[in-house]
Amino acid sequence: MELIRCIQAEWLKRRHSLASWLVIVGGFFTSVILIIAKLVHYDKLAEANKQPGFWRQHWLNSWESMAILLLPLGIILAVSLITQLEFRNNCWKQWHTTPQHFTTMYFSKLLVLIFMLLQLFFFLNIGIYLSAVLPGLFVKGTSYPAAEIPFSLFAKQNLIFFITSLPVVSLQFLAGLQFKNFMVSLGCGITLWIASIALLTWKYSYILPYSYSSLYFFNIAGRFKHQINFSYWSLGWFFLFTVAGYILYITKKEKG
């Protein structure tokens, strides 16, 4: 019950953060761009909707910029913002005087971040569907996409994209708790993301967990493949960063 109450309190606090808007905007951003692009090139819309591979191509178009750019950057920014709430409002001392264990405080914050990531994926998938069907409503002679939606495939890929995002969440959370300056944790995350992009074609690029969503996208798009299990590697890094962050948090002498 203590953990549930703590999660509820953290969830209320995040509503007043810019991170809440980032989740909504990030979830629908790519879809809005795709809708505009389809309406601009409306003459190709009717033929595209008749293609048997419509949903797969639309899925890849929707995820390309998301997996490589928007998802890791959005997580870096959102997690840094949420983690820094107490630092910006000078609330750490007040927070630590409440009758709650440090363990509960740590994991309640981490779980809220994971719930927000789930929320982002929910908005993203709604946006992907809407960007597939809405343009056709405005273009005469365009029918609903003829191909069947491969729900099981998309569900599996959604799950793996979600899992590949977890190491970024846990490492940014660790950094955000260690540094009072918002720019430090943000800068560390962006630096690691840039390094992962620069090393994408390196055969050992999978050692950088910030590259996992990009590498997995390239795998499903058939551009180049890494013979590793992204889920296992991501969960391994997530567990390592979570445990390391927890130890650093409870042993930190000055917690705010």
Write the layout of secondary structure elements.
Layout: H1 2-14, H2 18-40, H3 45-50, H4 54-83, H5 85-89, H6 92-96, H7 102-138, H8 151-178, H9 182-198, H10 212-221, H11 230-251
Strand-residue proportion: under 5%
Q: What is the general shape?
A: globular
Number of DSSP helical runs: 11
Overall residue-averaged pLDDT value: 87
Q: Report the span from N to C terminus.
A: 25 Å
One letter per element, helices H and strands E, the order comes to HHHHHHHHHHH
How many domain regions? Answer: 1
Uncertain stretches of 5 or more adjacent residues: none
Number of strands: 0
| Major β-sheet annotation | none
Q: State the helical fraction.
A: over 70%
The secondary structure category is: mainly alpha
What Rg, in angstroms, do the CA atoms define?
A: 20 Å
Tags for this model:
77% helix, 0% strand, 256 residues
Can you walk me through this structure?
- With 256 residues, the protein is mainly α.
- The chain has one domain (2-251).
- It contains eleven helices and no strands.
- It has helices spanning 2-14, 18-40, 45-50, 54-83, 85-89, 92-96, 102-138, 151-178, 182-198, 212-221, 230-251.
- The radius of gyration is 20 Å and the shape is globular.
